[in-house]
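Is this the right way to post structure tokens for a design question? Let me know if I should format differently. Anyway, here goes:
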């Protein structure tokens, strides 16, 4: 029984290795399950047995990295929700830990993140960036509502919050495109994070008129 389980694990791992290569080369829409199976020296039936369908196979390739990324982001917002905003004093680099976690995740899983961002068209993951922006936008708005309670005659500036969310996400995408090492990525993203936090504190609220 144990040998059978080990054999299945090895088959599954081999299919994922071949699938990652195929998705990177051709993207989800044009990727061939037959080619993946042949490369893994299996039948297409094995793909359906282990992953049910093409989306499931893509999920097998990128799911772990995606789950880790979402966990880091959700943990960050959970901590922000519990933070005492009145006592917060911004300093350059005070989001360095978050930036490093995200950069490490991206560069530890660079192929998987590349597939997710650029090669997932036609899959259930193709709207990932928009979904991420919406999630961050909602979390930022909740935080801004708390922030607004500290300032009479102020209200949340939703347009600015939404734009800042886009800036943050696009900065990490730009980083992936142009910075090939995690060291260069950190040097790029740190001032970006400082810029975004400064902008958030300054412009997340507007006069309530």
């Amino acid at each position: 029984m144990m040998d059978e389980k080990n054999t299945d694990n090895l088959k599954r791992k081999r299919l994922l290795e071949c699938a990652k290569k195929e998705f990177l080369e051709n993207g989800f829409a044009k990727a061939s399950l037959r080619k993946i199976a042949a490369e893994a020296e299996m039948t297409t039936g094995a793909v359906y047995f282990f992953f049910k369908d093409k989306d499931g196979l893509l999920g097998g390739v990128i799911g772990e990295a995606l789950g880790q990324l979402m966990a880091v982001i959700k943990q960050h917002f959970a901590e922000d929700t519990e933070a005492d905003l009145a006592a917060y004093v911004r300093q350059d680099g005070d989001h360095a830990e978050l930036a490093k976690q995200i950069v490490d995740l991206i560069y530890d899983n660079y192929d998987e993140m590349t597939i997710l961002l650029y090669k997932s068209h036609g899959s259930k993951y193709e709207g990932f960036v928009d979904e991420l922006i919406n999630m961050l936008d909602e979390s930022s708005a909740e935080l801004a509502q708390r922030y607004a309670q500290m300032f009479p005659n102020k209200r949340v500036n939703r347009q600015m919050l939404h734009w800042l969310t886009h800036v943050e996400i696009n900065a990490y995408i730009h980083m992936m495109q142009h910075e090939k090492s995690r060291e260069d990525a950190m040097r790029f993203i740190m001032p970006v994070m400082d810029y975004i936090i400064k902008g958030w504190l300054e412009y997340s609220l507007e006069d309530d008129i």
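Format looks fine. Someone answered above. Worth noting: The chain has a mean pLDDT of 93. The chain has two domains: 1-52, 63-207.
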